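FAQ: What does a ligand-bound record look like?

Like this one, built around adenosine monophosphate:
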Amino acid sequence: MTFKELKLIEPLIKALDKKGYETPSPIQQKAIPYILEGHDMFGCAQTGTGKTAAFALPILQLLEANKKPNSRREIKALILAPTRELASQISENFTAYGANLGFSHAVIFGGVSQFHQVNTLKKGIDILIATPGRLLDLMQQGFIKLGGVNYFVLDEADRMLDMGFIHDIKKVLTKLPAKKQTLFFSATATPTIMKLANGILHNPVSVAVNPVSSTAALIKQQVYYVKQDKKVGLLKHIIESQKIGHALIFTRTKRGADKVAKQLNGYGIKAEAIHGNKSQGSRERALKAFKDRTLRILVATDIASRGIDVDKLSHVINFEIPEVPETYVHRIGRTGRAGEDGIAISLCAHAELPDFKGIEKFLKKEIEVVKKHPFI
Ligand code: AMP
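The answer part, i.e. the structure of the complex:
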Protein backbone atom coordinates (compact mmCIF):
# COMPACT_ATOMS: atom_id res chain seq x y z
CA MET A 1 0.00 0.00 0.00
CA THR A 2 1.30 3.44 -0.93
CA PHE A 3 0.11 6.96 -0.09
CA LYS A 4 -0.79 7.35 -3.78
CA GLU A 5 -3.10 4.36 -3.52
CA LEU A 6 -4.86 6.16 -0.69
CA LYS A 7 -5.71 8.78 -3.34
CA LEU A 8 -3.81 11.53 -1.63
CA ILE A 9 -3.10 14.56 -3.79
CA GLU A 10 0.34 15.40 -5.14
CA PRO A 11 1.17 18.29 -2.75
CA LEU A 12 0.62 15.93 0.19
CA ILE A 13 2.57 13.07 -1.43
CA LYS A 14 5.47 15.45 -1.98
CA ALA A 15 5.40 16.56 1.65
CA LEU A 16 5.33 12.92 2.81
CA ASP A 17 8.30 12.13 0.55
CA LYS A 18 10.17 14.94 2.19
CA LYS A 19 9.37 13.52 5.64
CA GLY A 20 10.72 10.19 4.40
CA TYR A 21 7.50 8.24 4.99
CA GLU A 22 7.37 5.31 2.61
CA THR A 23 4.22 3.44 3.52
CA PRO A 24 1.08 4.48 5.34
CA SER A 25 0.83 3.06 8.87
CA PRO A 26 -2.14 0.73 9.61
CA ILE A 27 -4.29 3.50 11.13
CA GLN A 28 -3.56 5.68 8.10
CA GLN A 29 -4.49 2.89 5.70
CA LYS A 30 -7.73 2.28 7.53
CA ALA A 31 -8.79 5.83 8.39
CA ILE A 32 -7.80 8.01 5.42
CA PRO A 33 -10.24 6.56 2.83
CA TYR A 34 -13.22 6.91 5.18
CA ILE A 35 -12.32 10.44 6.22
CA LEU A 36 -11.91 11.46 2.58
CA GLU A 37 -15.41 10.09 1.96
CA GLY A 38 -16.75 12.42 4.64
CA HIS A 39 -17.52 9.92 7.42
CA ASP A 40 -17.42 10.66 11.12
CA MET A 41 -14.90 8.41 12.82
CA PHE A 42 -14.15 6.71 16.10
CA GLY A 43 -10.45 5.91 15.99
CA CYS A 44 -9.00 3.71 18.69
CA ALA A 45 -5.28 4.32 18.48
CA GLN A 46 -2.56 5.58 20.72
CA THR A 47 0.29 8.00 20.11
CA GLY A 48 3.00 6.39 18.05
CA THR A 49 0.70 4.75 15.53
CA GLY A 50 0.75 7.67 13.08
CA LYS A 51 -2.73 8.82 14.04
CA THR A 52 -1.94 12.52 13.62
CA ALA A 53 -1.22 12.05 9.92
CA ALA A 54 -4.27 9.79 9.72
CA PHE A 55 -6.49 12.80 10.38
CA ALA A 56 -4.28 15.71 9.28
CA LEU A 57 -3.69 14.45 5.73
CA PRO A 58 -7.34 13.92 4.76
CA ILE A 59 -8.40 17.16 6.47
CA LEU A 60 -5.84 19.09 4.39
CA GLN A 61 -7.03 17.32 1.27
CA LEU A 62 -10.70 18.05 2.01
CA LEU A 63 -9.90 21.70 2.73
CA GLU A 64 -8.08 21.91 -0.61
CA ALA A 65 -10.95 20.25 -2.47
CA ASN A 66 -13.51 22.60 -0.95
CA LYS A 67 -11.48 25.77 -1.27
CA LYS A 68 -13.57 28.70 -2.45
CA PRO A 69 -11.74 31.44 -4.31
CA ASN A 70 -11.67 34.84 -2.61
CA SER A 71 -13.60 33.64 0.40
CA ARG A 72 -12.95 35.15 3.80
CA ARG A 73 -10.40 33.35 6.00
CA GLU A 74 -12.18 31.63 8.85
CA ILE A 75 -11.47 28.62 11.01
CA LYS A 76 -12.59 25.58 9.03
CA ALA A 77 -10.87 22.85 11.01
CA LEU A 78 -10.56 22.63 14.80
CA ILE A 79 -8.34 20.10 16.53
CA LEU A 80 -8.64 19.77 20.30
CA ALA A 81 -5.76 18.15 22.17
CA PRO A 82 -5.28 17.63 25.92
CA THR A 83 -1.76 19.02 26.43
CA ARG A 84 0.39 21.85 25.14
CA GLU A 85 3.02 19.37 23.98
CA LEU A 86 0.57 17.34 21.96
CA ALA A 87 -1.02 20.48 20.50
CA SER A 88 2.42 21.77 19.46
CA GLN A 89 3.29 18.47 17.87
CA ILE A 90 0.03 18.33 15.93
CA SER A 91 0.79 21.85 14.75
CA GLU A 92 4.27 20.79 13.60
CA ASN A 93 2.67 17.95 11.67
CA PHE A 94 0.27 20.33 9.94
CA THR A 95 3.25 22.54 9.02
CA ALA A 96 5.07 19.58 7.49
CA TYR A 97 2.17 17.92 5.67
CA GLY A 98 0.61 21.17 4.52
CA ALA A 99 3.89 22.70 3.30
CA ASN A 100 2.78 22.65 -0.36
CA LEU A 101 -0.74 23.93 0.27
CA GLY A 102 -1.64 27.48 1.15
CA PHE A 103 -3.45 27.00 4.47
CA SER A 104 -2.56 28.82 7.61
CA HIS A 105 -2.87 27.32 11.04
CA ALA A 106 -2.33 28.36 14.62
CA VAL A 107 -1.79 26.54 17.87
CA ILE A 108 -3.07 27.92 21.16
CA PHE A 109 -2.59 26.65 24.71
CA GLY A 110 -2.46 28.02 28.22
CA GLY A 111 0.49 28.74 30.45
CA VAL A 112 1.93 31.39 28.13
CA SER A 113 0.91 34.92 27.26
CA GLN A 114 -1.99 35.08 24.83
CA PHE A 115 -0.46 38.04 22.99
CA HIS A 116 1.17 36.22 20.06
CA GLN A 117 -1.66 33.73 19.83
CA VAL A 118 -4.20 36.53 19.50
CA ASN A 119 -2.09 38.30 16.89
CA THR A 120 -1.94 35.16 14.78
CA LEU A 121 -5.68 34.66 15.14
CA LYS A 122 -6.35 38.24 14.04
CA LYS A 123 -4.55 37.59 10.75
CA GLY A 124 -7.11 34.88 9.97
CA ILE A 125 -6.42 31.17 10.00
CA ASP A 126 -7.90 28.06 8.39
CA ILE A 127 -6.91 25.45 10.95
CA LEU A 128 -6.84 25.85 14.73
CA ILE A 129 -5.15 23.44 17.10
CA ALA A 130 -6.01 24.12 20.72
CA THR A 131 -6.15 22.87 24.27
CA PRO A 132 -9.67 23.30 25.69
CA GLY A 133 -9.02 25.88 28.44
CA ARG A 134 -7.26 28.51 26.33
CA LEU A 135 -9.68 27.95 23.47
CA LEU A 136 -12.65 28.76 25.69
CA ASP A 137 -10.82 31.69 27.20
CA LEU A 138 -10.11 33.28 23.80
CA MET A 139 -13.62 32.45 22.59
CA GLN A 140 -15.05 34.28 25.59
CA GLN A 141 -12.85 37.25 24.81
CA GLY A 142 -14.27 37.27 21.30
CA PHE A 143 -11.07 36.38 19.44
CA ILE A 144 -12.32 33.06 18.10
CA LYS A 145 -15.47 32.20 16.18
CA LEU A 146 -16.19 28.59 15.39
CA GLY A 147 -19.25 29.05 13.17
CA GLY A 148 -17.32 28.07 10.02
CA VAL A 149 -15.85 24.81 11.32
CA ASN A 150 -16.40 21.90 8.93
CA TYR A 151 -13.92 19.47 10.47
CA PHE A 152 -13.61 18.81 14.18
CA VAL A 153 -11.06 16.47 15.76
CA LEU A 154 -11.03 15.42 19.39
CA ASP A 155 -7.62 13.89 19.94
CA GLU A 156 -6.70 11.70 22.91
CA ALA A 157 -10.23 11.96 24.24
CA ASP A 158 -9.50 9.51 27.07
CA ARG A 159 -6.71 11.71 28.35
CA MET A 160 -8.96 14.77 28.08
CA LEU A 161 -11.47 13.09 30.36
CA ASP A 162 -8.71 12.01 32.77
CA MET A 163 -7.61 15.62 32.95
CA GLY A 164 -11.10 16.82 33.73
CA PHE A 165 -11.82 18.60 30.43
CA ILE A 166 -15.29 17.14 29.92
CA HIS A 167 -17.16 20.37 30.74
CA ASP A 168 -14.84 22.45 28.58
CA ILE A 169 -15.36 20.04 25.68
CA LYS A 170 -19.11 20.21 26.09
CA LYS A 171 -19.01 24.01 26.05
CA VAL A 172 -16.93 24.03 22.87
CA LEU A 173 -19.35 21.58 21.24
CA THR A 174 -22.25 23.98 21.73
CA LYS A 175 -20.40 26.60 19.66
CA LEU A 176 -19.70 24.33 16.70
CA PRO A 177 -22.04 24.13 13.72
CA ALA A 178 -24.34 21.10 13.77
CA LYS A 179 -23.23 20.08 10.28
CA LYS A 180 -19.60 19.07 10.34
CA GLN A 181 -17.37 16.03 10.10
CA THR A 182 -16.17 14.83 13.52
CA LEU A 183 -13.16 12.59 14.15
CA PHE A 184 -12.77 11.19 17.62
CA PHE A 185 -9.52 9.55 18.71
CA SER A 186 -8.88 7.72 21.94
CA ALA A 187 -6.38 5.10 23.07
CA THR A 188 -9.06 3.33 25.07
CA ALA A 189 -12.72 2.60 24.49
CA THR A 190 -14.14 2.59 28.01
CA PRO A 191 -17.91 2.98 28.57
CA THR A 192 -17.42 6.69 29.50
CA ILE A 193 -15.49 7.30 26.29
CA MET A 194 -18.09 5.48 24.20
CA LYS A 195 -20.86 7.54 25.81
CA LEU A 196 -19.08 10.78 24.90
CA ALA A 197 -18.32 9.51 21.39
CA ASN A 198 -21.88 8.36 20.77
CA GLY A 199 -23.14 11.77 21.83
CA ILE A 200 -21.14 13.65 19.23
CA LEU A 201 -20.59 11.30 16.30
CA HIS A 202 -23.12 10.63 13.52
CA ASN A 203 -23.02 7.15 11.98
CA PRO A 204 -19.31 6.88 12.66
CA VAL A 205 -16.97 4.38 11.10
CA SER A 206 -14.84 2.68 13.75
CA VAL A 207 -11.21 1.95 13.11
CA ALA A 208 -8.81 0.48 15.64
CA VAL A 209 -5.16 -0.37 15.74
CA ASN A 210 -2.88 -1.56 18.52
CA PRO A 211 -5.37 -1.70 21.34
CA VAL A 212 -3.78 -0.38 24.48
CA SER A 213 -3.39 -3.86 25.94
CA SER A 214 -0.95 -4.82 23.20
CA THR A 215 2.49 -3.34 23.07
CA ALA A 216 4.22 -2.98 19.72
CA ALA A 217 5.85 -6.27 18.83
CA LEU A 218 9.08 -4.52 17.91
CA ILE A 219 9.67 -3.22 21.42
CA LYS A 220 12.08 -5.35 23.45
CA GLN A 221 11.05 -5.18 27.11
CA GLN A 222 13.32 -5.90 30.06
CA VAL A 223 13.12 -5.49 33.80
CA TYR A 224 15.90 -5.13 36.39
CA TYR A 225 15.04 -5.88 40.01
CA VAL A 226 16.94 -3.42 42.17
CA LYS A 227 16.76 -1.67 45.56
CA GLN A 228 15.21 1.80 45.33
CA ASP A 229 18.37 3.53 46.59
CA LYS A 230 20.52 1.74 44.01
CA LYS A 231 18.38 2.77 41.04
CA VAL A 232 20.39 5.82 40.00
CA GLY A 233 23.64 3.86 40.09
CA LEU A 234 22.07 1.13 37.98
CA LEU A 235 20.64 3.72 35.60
CA LYS A 236 24.10 5.23 35.09
CA HIS A 237 25.52 1.74 34.57
CA ILE A 238 22.87 0.86 31.96
CA ILE A 239 23.28 4.15 30.07
CA GLU A 240 27.05 3.84 30.00
CA SER A 241 27.49 0.10 29.46
CA GLN A 242 24.86 -0.02 26.72
CA LYS A 243 26.14 3.25 25.23
CA ILE A 244 22.61 4.66 25.17
CA GLY A 245 22.74 7.85 23.18
CA HIS A 246 19.15 8.98 23.53
CA ALA A 247 16.60 7.93 26.12
CA LEU A 248 13.36 9.07 27.66
CA ILE A 249 13.17 8.26 31.37
CA PHE A 250 9.95 8.20 33.35
CA THR A 251 9.46 8.98 37.01
CA ARG A 252 6.23 9.03 38.99
CA THR A 253 6.70 12.47 40.49
CA LYS A 254 7.94 15.92 39.46
CA ARG A 255 10.45 15.90 42.30
CA GLY A 256 11.65 12.49 41.22
CA ALA A 257 12.19 13.76 37.68
CA ASP A 258 14.26 16.71 38.92
CA LYS A 259 16.29 14.48 41.21
CA VAL A 260 17.14 11.90 38.54
CA ALA A 261 18.11 14.62 36.03
CA LYS A 262 20.33 16.28 38.63
CA GLN A 263 22.03 13.04 39.60
CA LEU A 264 22.68 12.08 35.97
CA ASN A 265 24.19 15.50 35.30
CA GLY A 266 26.35 14.91 38.36
CA TYR A 267 27.69 11.81 36.61
CA GLY A 268 28.40 13.83 33.48
CA ILE A 269 25.37 12.46 31.60
CA LYS A 270 23.47 15.40 30.13
CA ALA A 271 19.87 15.25 31.27
CA GLU A 272 16.91 17.58 31.73
CA ALA A 273 13.57 17.13 33.43
CA ILE A 274 10.20 18.22 32.10
CA HIS A 275 7.04 18.35 34.16
CA GLY A 276 4.10 20.58 34.97
CA ASN A 277 6.04 22.87 37.32
CA LYS A 278 8.47 23.94 34.61
CA SER A 279 7.68 26.96 32.52
CA GLN A 280 6.39 26.40 29.02
CA GLY A 281 9.59 27.92 27.64
CA SER A 282 11.86 25.57 29.53
CA ARG A 283 9.74 22.55 28.57
CA GLU A 284 9.87 23.50 24.92
CA ARG A 285 13.61 24.13 25.02
CA ALA A 286 14.25 20.76 26.64
CA LEU A 287 11.98 18.99 24.18
CA LYS A 288 13.62 20.68 21.21
CA ALA A 289 17.12 19.87 22.47
CA PHE A 290 16.03 16.26 22.97
CA LYS A 291 14.59 16.09 19.46
CA ASP A 292 17.71 17.68 18.00
CA ARG A 293 19.74 15.16 19.98
CA THR A 294 21.81 17.84 21.67
CA LEU A 295 20.20 16.59 24.88
CA ARG A 296 20.94 12.95 25.63
CA ILE A 297 18.41 12.20 28.36
CA LEU A 298 14.96 13.61 28.98
CA VAL A 299 13.36 12.77 32.32
CA ALA A 300 9.59 13.20 32.34
CA THR A 301 6.48 12.60 34.37
CA ASP A 302 3.57 10.90 32.64
CA ILE A 303 1.44 13.99 32.10
CA ALA A 304 4.36 16.04 30.76
CA SER A 305 5.40 13.25 28.44
CA ARG A 306 2.01 12.78 26.89
CA GLY A 307 2.34 13.03 23.16
CA ILE A 308 6.10 13.44 23.12
CA ASP A 309 6.88 12.50 19.61
CA VAL A 310 10.48 11.84 18.78
CA ASP A 311 11.51 10.02 15.64
CA LYS A 312 13.53 6.90 16.20
CA LEU A 313 13.62 7.02 19.98
CA SER A 314 15.62 3.90 20.83
CA HIS A 315 15.16 3.64 24.60
CA VAL A 316 12.45 4.27 27.15
CA ILE A 317 13.42 3.67 30.78
CA ASN A 318 10.90 3.36 33.59
CA PHE A 319 12.87 4.65 36.55
CA GLU A 320 9.73 3.96 38.53
CA ILE A 321 6.99 1.49 37.74
CA PRO A 322 3.66 3.13 36.96
CA GLU A 323 0.69 2.14 39.09
CA VAL A 324 -1.66 1.83 36.14
CA PRO A 325 -0.80 -0.77 33.46
CA GLU A 326 -2.11 1.43 30.63
CA THR A 327 0.45 4.06 31.63
CA TYR A 328 3.19 1.48 31.08
CA VAL A 329 1.86 0.85 27.59
CA HIS A 330 1.71 4.57 26.84
CA ARG A 331 5.22 5.09 28.15
CA ILE A 332 6.88 2.34 26.20
CA GLY A 333 4.87 3.29 23.12
CA ARG A 334 7.24 6.24 22.80
CA THR A 335 9.85 3.87 21.43
CA GLY A 336 9.60 1.35 18.61
CA ARG A 337 7.57 3.82 16.55
CA ALA A 338 6.56 3.49 12.94
CA GLY A 339 8.32 0.20 12.39
CA GLU A 340 11.56 0.98 14.24
CA ASP A 341 12.98 -1.28 16.93
CA GLY A 342 12.88 0.01 20.49
CA ILE A 343 13.96 -1.07 23.94
CA ALA A 344 11.94 -0.49 27.09
CA ILE A 345 13.77 -1.01 30.37
CA SER A 346 12.07 -1.00 33.76
CA LEU A 347 13.78 -0.61 37.12
CA CYS A 348 11.64 -2.32 39.70
CA ALA A 349 12.14 -2.02 43.47
CA HIS A 350 10.65 -4.52 45.89
CA ALA A 351 7.74 -2.27 46.83
CA GLU A 352 6.83 -1.89 43.15
CA LEU A 353 6.61 -5.61 42.48
CA PRO A 354 2.80 -5.82 42.80
CA ASP A 355 2.43 -3.00 40.24
CA PHE A 356 4.88 -4.71 37.91
CA LYS A 357 3.08 -8.05 38.18
CA GLY A 358 -0.13 -6.17 37.42
CA ILE A 359 1.44 -4.89 34.20
CA GLU A 360 2.52 -8.38 33.14
CA LYS A 361 -0.98 -9.66 33.84
CA PHE A 362 -2.47 -6.83 31.78
CA LEU A 363 -0.08 -7.53 28.89
CA LYS A 364 -0.60 -11.28 29.28
CA LYS A 365 3.12 -11.82 29.00
CA GLU A 366 6.20 -12.15 31.16
CA ILE A 367 8.84 -9.50 30.73
CA GLU A 368 12.45 -10.67 30.45
CA VAL A 369 14.32 -10.27 33.74
CA VAL A 370 17.94 -9.12 33.48
CA LYS A 371 19.46 -11.20 36.25
CA LYS A 372 23.10 -10.21 35.99
CA HIS A 373 23.87 -6.66 37.00
CA PRO A 374 26.21 -5.05 39.54
CA PHE A 375 23.45 -3.57 41.72
CA ILE A 376 21.56 -6.73 42.53
P1 AMP B 1 1.67 9.88 15.96
O1 AMP B 1 1.04 8.58 16.32
O2 AMP B 1 0.83 10.72 15.10
O3 AMP B 1 2.18 10.57 17.18
O4 AMP B 1 2.97 9.55 15.05
C1 AMP B 1 4.06 8.80 15.52
C2 AMP B 1 5.33 9.02 14.74
O5 AMP B 1 5.34 8.33 13.50
C3 AMP B 1 5.62 10.47 14.38
O6 AMP B 1 7.00 10.69 14.62
C4 AMP B 1 5.33 10.58 12.91
O7 AMP B 1 6.12 11.59 12.33
C5 AMP B 1 5.70 9.20 12.43
N1 AMP B 1 4.92 8.72 11.27
C6 AMP B 1 3.61 8.91 11.05
N2 AMP B 1 3.23 8.30 9.91
C7 AMP B 1 4.32 7.68 9.42
C8 AMP B 1 4.55 6.87 8.26
N3 AMP B 1 3.58 6.54 7.41
N4 AMP B 1 5.81 6.43 8.06
C9 AMP B 1 6.81 6.73 8.94
N5 AMP B 1 6.66 7.48 10.03
C10 AMP B 1 5.42 7.95 10.28
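Follow-up question: can I read anything off the structure? Yes, for example: The longest helix spans residues 51-65.
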